[in-house]
Amino acid sequence: MTERNSSTMKWAVIGGIVLAVVIAAALLWKQRGSEGPEDADEEVAQTVDPAEALRRKRALRSSADGLDFEAPASIGGRVTRADDGEGIEGAVVLLSRKGVFRGQAPEAGEPSQPLMVVTDANGGWQLDAVLPGRYLLSATADGFLPGQRADVQVFGPKAKDAARTFDLALRAGGNPISGTISDIDGGPIEGVLVQIQEAGGANFGFRQVPLAVISDEEGRYSVSVANGRYAMSTLHADYVGDVRLTEVLDAARTEDFRLVPGGTIEGVVLARAEGAEGGKPVAGARVTFADSRMGGMGGFTTNISLDGSVVVTDDAGRFRLRGLRSGVVKISAAAAGYATTSPVEVAVGIGEPVSGVELWVDRAYTLSGFVVPDGDPEGAIEGVLVGAWQLQPPALLVATAPTSSDGYFEILGVPTGTFQVGAVGEENLLTLTGATAVVQDSDITDLLIELDTGVRIRGRVEPPRQARIALRPNPEEASLGNLGGMMADGMAWAIADENGEFELGPLTPGGGLSGGRPLTLTAESDDGYKGELEVKLGGEDLEGVTVAMEKGATVAGTVLDSTGAPQAGVTVSVTPADPEGPGDIQMNFGGPETGAAPTGEDGRYSVRGLDPGKHLVIVKDSKGRAMSWAPGAGPEPKGSGEDEEVQPLELNIEDTVNDTFLELRVSPRDGLIEGQVVDADGVPVPDAFVTAALDVSSDAFMAAMRPGQEETETVEGVTPEKERADRRDWTQSAYFAEPPVLTDENGFFVITELRRDRAYNLVAEGERGGARATQDGVSPGVGVGTRVTLTLETLGGLDGKVLAKGKAVPKYTVALSGSVSRTTRVNDPSGEFSFDRLDPGKYEIVVTADGGSATTLVELGESSRERVELQLDAWGSLEGELINAADGEALRGMAVLMTTESNASRGQGGMGLLTGQGPKTGYDGRFVIDEVPPGKGTLTFMDPDIDLGSAAAVAVVDFELEPGETLDLGTVKGTQTESVPRDERGDLGMRVTTATWDERPRPPGTDLEASDEEPDPEPAEPGKPAPVRLWVRSIDVGGAAEDAGVVPGDEVLTIDGESVASLGAGTAAQKLSNSRVRAGQSVRLELRRDGERLDLSVKARAKDEKKGAAEAAPEGEQG
User: Fold this and answer.
1) Which ranges are annotated Basic and acidic residues under compositional bias (predicted)?
2) CB neighbours of 766 closer than 8 A, spacing ≥ 6?
3) Which domain holds residue 545?
4) Does residue 614 sit in the same domain as residue 731?
5) Cα–Cα distance measured from residue 556 to residue 607, given in angstroms and rounded to the nearest whole number
6) Count of domains for the chain
7) H-state helical runs in 659-788
8) Quick check: 74 and 156 in contact, CB under 8 A?
9) What is the pLDDT of residues 822-865, one digit of tens each?
């Protein structure tokens, strides 16, 4: 059996880690705790007692002088024309508080609304009752570039000499983003607020100023903007909000919206009263929601609503949520002293009002404190976002508001457990581990989080022009020890002004004897100029740098389909065929893609700033998926079905002086799928959502991200498959689906503008999220749509109970994973849990509690409901000693990553590794890991200072643990060798795996059902687990290993004479990593095959070496 090796990316390990950290940056405000050299500030003796400083801060807040911290004030100003100072009537002014929350509520119990006002005839505006804090201010008017300010600070009414007037001057120009907003019946919607915000960069709501425009009585809107990539969203109380990305480059852009009526939920928050049936209403509770726009995602607890709105209950505990998408809406509440244990699920129809919902809250706690400058506990930092997070169960609970002027924050409704408290400020470095809060049975009010200001780079670009400034992380320096700094570098960006001047920061300081850490400063402009500069960043600001820019080449043209129709809103990507260097880490954070440009309404594009040489061209749709070439317009694709991969066009750019014109032809987007949705009795179902998702695999999607990368054909061993939960490919998530359509009164639907060359997977959902139908592989028709009938089936459910020694477990967390993922905390004396509205398929259930864990696999049939009982197994522990196999010395400070087959983790997994909160080896090399679930697992030891791109661990050891057992792993041998430089690395053309005899890979063609399998030559001792050994999993066709005679299924006994059994199979595998082998190096392997031993020598090949060019021959065999 041969198949394409889909995991050959040499950056697989670091890419996965970077992706995890990027997600953490968006949700957890990424930054691991520093364990580097001592700060220079530590040399200054601290003269202020932090506890005394906290006492004084709290005393001030409770005094009359502190009452002005939250008192609202009125502000206003004028919007004028920059050329003559005349006022602009009808301009839309938007005031946005810096951070993650949207606006202010008009009254208690109602959703917060953006602070927006339209200017009068003189261009004047005023907003009343604005809460103190830092804000972003914008004004838009048709035909003018937006006016923007990021320096607005509102003080309480008692503040003396505080600015209350904020003016904006608008200049004519820009390119319009315009469109029409209609409802599902096609009628125009007036009064829709369209918010537009630059999408590039990770700013956490601090820097990119949102813009606003309002649709008129015909549903039309228009706003002029500068070139850039933008996130757009709609807001109307009666409709479900819509979001999308768009890009503008020297041309107008049309973005039409079709909105669905939103549902409403009204209810009350009640505190559960012990010893009584009723409960008291809870005033001031924050009610948050997540609806079906999440696309079935779950398992992450947060107090941030999907749309960023905030609803705070009134004095009677009442609330109202608006603009909800039909289906299941999950509602949570948090207040001082209370919180919902798990979200309450409410079914909502299209535009349906639901009332009488009761949200019962249980005892919870408050975390509060102050954010201060590093080393200055008496100081204060205003406007900081603070959040408490934990790994298991995954949760992020953010503060009720950015820190006030005295640095105060509070986080309400925190359950018991251990939380890390992180913070991110506008002018400070992020910290994910600013404080640790162990919540048991009381509030914690003494948290003090210190933030560092970091350092800045200031300079200019030449020739002077507006340009985007960024830092390119150095992959050679990517290690666990400096990952936080590297991520901060990747997130930093700035815009050089018209004079070319810029300030970039805050950045993590460098240092050391070398004079600082090396960085690459990059600059790119819209008109195709670019440049870069190598700098060294030390412990002080870097001043006066100059980045020289040169004009790059331009590729321009038109994208048409095979009928000649212009293709608007697609992206043309032009990337080097042979990029120089080891492969930089790309951290774009939503900004414009380098070497790419969008098409305008006429299909025209212009990709600028390119280098001469051979390039690869591909066209992508709005979701980043490669579009197929029209017949004869490009290379034939590889593969078929969901694995079909579009191959890029080759283009040679001669110079940077003459533009290259290139007309591109793609397959039309004129396909149709139509049909009817019916229930189980065949009755048509009106108002059902139907979505279509392109039938494309994740491998095919990623191929468009790296066009032209040669795929290596491999020969794979036959490995026994383990029973696992059904997982949905992420390319089928809600983000990648086409906009949903609704069935009419007869259940009919039509989906248009589909790609005629590819199949789609259809999903219909009705009965307020309680029934679903799916049909995969539907090919659109042209002219006449492909007709299908989708029959809704009622979704199933799971009920369960968790026991320990025969008694119900009252408190635990249960995680469900399969085609959907959900996590819930249970606080019920009965020990019962339930999950509703589940698709058929296999699900894994993982329970974790203080007393242990439990895992099981359950299969749901159509419309079925299953019940399970899980018995907790007590946590175990692991201990041992890590030494260097070469000299026997202890390996200290190594990070330990634990993975288990049961997936029951308490923070020893990937996020613990990334944040520095996971286990490590001690000074003597010893390690202890508690709360380990029973069953099989693996420990991976990693050097925090080693290049992550090496993908090599110091040691890997497998284990098998009994419930409650303390297992001594003894002495674990590690290989702490230096990685081979990237340009000198070799490839053995083989991949190995660790497995027991029963789980090992077999030679290609093996029938696993055969009964004549040979016995294990080294069986386990009675009563002991089977030993884990090293096996060849796959080889490259025509590669070094195949030429040497290696076959999948071979057992590796020794490597260069060193026994695998002595070293440990996991650690031995690292010796065969590409990062440990030099090109031209011969590796001697002793293998076992069919009971026979043989010695082979495999000579590693250089990356670009042709097949068969290297010598690799058997050196002999022995019986």
Assistant:
1) 1098-1109
2) 677, 679, 685, 687, 688, 689, 772, 792
3) 455-551
4) no
5) 6
6) 9
7) 698-705
8) no
9) 888 888 899 999 988 888 999 999 999 999 999 999 999 888 89
